[in-house]
Specification:
The structure holds two protein chains of two kinds. Chain A is mainly α. Helices cover 65% and strands 0% of the residues of chain A. The relative contact order of chain A is 0.17. By secondary structure, chain B is an alpha/beta fold. Chain B has helices at 14-17, 24-43, 83-86, 97-107, 123-132, 155-170, 198-209, 213-216, 221-228, 235-244, 277-280, and strands at residues 2-9, 48-53, 68-71, 75-78, 91-94, 114-116, 139-145, 175-181, 250-258, 263-270. The chains are: A mainly alpha, B alpha/beta. Chains A and B meet through α1, α6 and α7 of A and α9 of B.
């Protein structure tokens, strides 16, 4: 797991038009610059919002990536719920700060 | 001159971006109170508006996360978000680098804070400005308190930050307003988006408007997360405003849970009394 780099890439994607251009034109080369597992790389490349949420990506980063790939608000919420259904509870990050809610 | 106005309001992106989803009656009552906040702000005739916000990974990330940061630029831009998504047009917002520099310099005697000469506003500042300075004709000085990436600054430090900010404002010739913007309880951008703990919010607001500092700073982050969600960490912005108005009380102009906006929508003002004796003696 390298949640830090998953979030860093999405953070830069959200705020930097040049990173967005590279994401569109040379995605593999952009993704190779971050220390990502295959699962993380695929989740980002496929726009798998549900899995990214389960990995622990902060919603304040994730909701903008969701909008970038064309999801509306309802689709975004549904994607996260779907992710939990398929992959189980959130694995890391801020949303696991309570001991009794850790997976 | 000094601090001339202090208030707080919500900033959730749904307030503008998903306006049509809310019950129009409640929404319009909320908008009316934001308009009243604007009128009160304008009546105080400020030269600059300090917005104490809790931004959401627009400028600050965990590679270098300041607990506190103040903007020190002559202009800013925002929103960083998609204009349609937020329903706010991208614009330039005037700043006041000279005044901000003087405030930062003064504050550094008593508390450590970072500064930024470049800052892109996200909804956390643009939504309040959309209602409070919609013509973008008032100099804005942004402040960020990290409420997103733990470890977060302890609540008593947020109160102290407000006290120190107040002292620095009172040492300037300009008329300065401060508006804090954050939570209160909410679970933004998660599957629990729309959940609001009204009981918790009202209890917090009661402590806030009565400026019961001991109670305001007594929440642990675990308690806040459990009862008020990760969005509840943004009470730091309100607590800083309480610190800036230490010894004074205030008034809740509006509070109503608006699930479509994913937050208990809040508008409140604090009286700006004389600086506390403790400070003026120094």
């Amino acid at each position: 797991m390298s949640l830090y780099y998953v979030q860093k890439l999405l953070y830069q994607l959200n705020r930097d038009p040049h990173v967005r251009e590279r994401f569109a034109s040379s995605r593999d080369s952009l993704l190779s610059e971050y220390e990502l597992t295959a699962e993380e790389r695929n989740a980002i490349a496929d726009g798998d919002i549900g899995l990214l949420y389960v990995m622990g990506v902060n919603g304040q980063i994730l909701m903008h990536y969701s909008a970038l790939i064309g999801q509306n608000w309802d689709e975004y919420i549904a994607a996260m719920r779907g992710g939990v259904k398929i992959h189980g509870p959130v694995r890391g990050g801020l949303y696991t700060m309570l001991e009794d809610r850790k997976p | 001159m000094s601090l001339v106005f202090a208030g707080v309001c919500s900033h959730a992106p749904g307030i503008t971006g998903r306006a049509q989803r809310a019950d129009p009656k409640v929404r319009d009552a909320f908008y009316a109170k934001l308009a009243e906040l604007r009128a009160r702000l304008e009546a105080a005739m400020p030269d600059a508006l300090i917005v104490i916000a809790a931004e959401h990974f627009a400028n600050f990330f965990m590679n270098n996360m300041p607990a506190y940061c103040m903007g020190m630029a002559d202009q800013y831009e925002g929103p960083i978000e998609d204009e349609q998504w937020l329903a706010i047009k991208r614009t330039r917002v005037p700043g006041n680098a000279d005044l901000a520099r003087r405030i930062v310099k003064r504050m550094m005697h008593d508390i450590d804070l970072a500064y930024a000469e470049e800052w892109k506003f996200d909804h956390g500042i643009m939504v309040p400005l959309n209602f409070l300075t919609p013509r973008y004709d008032l100099a804005v000085i942004p402040v960020n308190i990290n409420c997103q990436g733990p470890p977060l600054t302890p609540l008593h430090r947020a109160y102290e930050f407000g006290r120190i900010l107040r002292r620095a404002c009172d040492a300037q010739p300009e008329r300065i307003a401060v508006v804090g913007t954050g939570g209160i309880s909410h679970w933004p951008a998660t599957p629990d988006s729309g959940v609001i703990n009204e009981t918790w919010d009202r209890a917090f607001l009661d402590k806030f408007v009565h400026n019961r500092s001991d109670e305001l700073v007594a929440y642990s982050d675990e308690e806040t997360f459990r009862d008020a969600g990760q969005g509840g960490f943004e009470i730091r912005t309100f607590i800083a405003v309480a610190g800036a108005t230490e010894g004074s009380t205030g008034e809740v102009l509006f509070y109503a849970p608006i699930p479509a906006f994913a937050v208990g929508c809040t508008v409140a003002v604090m009286t700006v009394g004389a600086a506390s004796r403790r400070d003026s003696a120094r």
